[in-house]
Design goal:
This protein is of the alpha/beta class and about 325 residues long. It has 13 helices and 13 strands. The protein has two domains: about 220 residues, 3-Layer(aba) Sandwich (Rossmann fold); about 80 residues, UDP-galactose 4-epimerase, domain 1 (Alpha-Beta Complex). Strand 5, helix 7 and strand 6 form a beta-alpha-beta unit.
Length: about 325
């Protein structure tokens, strides 16, 4: 039986991953979390209600703030692990602009601490660093970034994630740590923090309020993203872990394999808001706002190429049916908005 350590296990994406692991494997899971703004044990509590007592016993929760090194007592609590999936991170762009050092601590120092823990483990099969599309910066029309394109961070959040990513690459190069890196973008799903765009739209449309649509300076072209459900992200991560070892050498002799986990369809934010309104049978009230003047440090368009994962045999589910599913679930579980 495999044993996996999931950092940030009570966070939004990671709790979906915990559920997916329980559903599809017999692995034991250790979640490591400090339970602050992003972590919420109620997420884990809710998903575990769908499992038997035997399955629930496969999940162990360990409290630790990764800004501190993992001490011997925490090492003992974690025990032997075969995989480490490092999802813990600060991810709020606006907050990173106001408090940049906080994100250096959460996304760079914390990553160094979990990597340092990992390099001292015997027989670790894989360390996955969960990165973001934002390390590549804004994508001009017609451009989708491949896994090894250059970075162009436009805010402290993306810069800190790029810093953590480079540390993971360095531990692969220096210590031969078996690292994979994933990039994904605009993940949504059940139990997401209510400040995020999709749950915010669900609530405002339900209540007849006006939605703000970030756009270009002319206020005619909405920002766009490849949205993806957290369950699809979880499925992609498990798909990668179940593949034979993937070895790569890219330009500059870069050895650390990287993978883009991308939603099935690019949607602009107006299209997305309209889908959410249609799912509720409500009228969409919206206002276009120049995104950069309103929120400096945010980018109009992000885009990644999902061709690599597609060629390997993995594709996400249909985005439109996923949005309808999340709208329906949220409206019947209103405490999450």
């Amino acid at each position: 039986m495999k044993r996996v350590l999931v950092t940030g296990g009570a966070g939004f994406i990671a709790h979906h991953l915990v559920s997916q692991i329980l559903k599809t494997t017999d692995w034991e899971i250790v979640t490591l979390d400090r339970l602050d703004f992003s972590g919420n044990l109620n997420r884990l509590h809710d998903i575990l209600q769908d499992f038997s007592e035997k399955d629930k016993s496969r999940v162990k929760i360990v409290f630790h703030d990764l800004k501190a090194a993992i001490n011997p007592l925490i090492v003992a609590d974690i025990g032997k692990v075969d995989y480490i999936l490092h999802l813990a991170a600060g991810s709020h762009v606006d907050r990173s602009i106001e408090y940049p050092l906080e994100f250096v601590m959460d996304n760079v120092v914390a990553t160094c601490n979990i990597l340092d823990f990992a390099r001292n483990l015997d027989h670790l099969e894989r360390f996955v660093y969960f990165s973001t599309d934002e390390v590549f910066g804004p994508a001009p029309n017609g451009i989708k970034y491949d896994e090894n394109d250059r970075y162009n961070s436009t805010n402290p959040y993306s810069a800190s994630k790029a810093g953590g990513e480079e540390l993971a690459v360095a531990f692969e190069n220096t210590y031969k740590l078996p690292v994979y890196i994933t990039h994904t973008m605009n993940v949504f799903g059940q139990r997401q923090h209510p400040e995020k765009y999709i749950p915010m739209c669900i609530r405002k449309i339900r209540d007849g309020e006006t939605i703000t649509i970030h756009s270009d300076p002319t206020k005619t072209i909405p920002g766009s993203r490849h949205y993806i459900h957290a369950e699809d992200v979880s499925d992609a991560l498990l798909f990668l872990l179940n593949q034979p070892t993937i070895s790569e050498k890219n330009w500059g002799d870069a050895k650390c394999p990287k993978f883009n986990i991308v939603g099935a369809e690019e949607l602009n934010n107006l299209e997305l808001a309209q889908l959410i309104a249609d799912a509720q049978g409500k009228e969409l009230k919206y206002q276009m706002i120049d995104f950069h003047s309103a929120r400096p440090g945010h980018d109009l368009r992000y885009a990644l190429s999902g061709e690599k994962m597609k060629k390997m045999g993995w594709v996400p589910q249909n985005i439109r049916s996923r949005i309808a599913e999340v709208v329906s679930w949220t409206l019947t579980n209103e405490r999450w908005i």
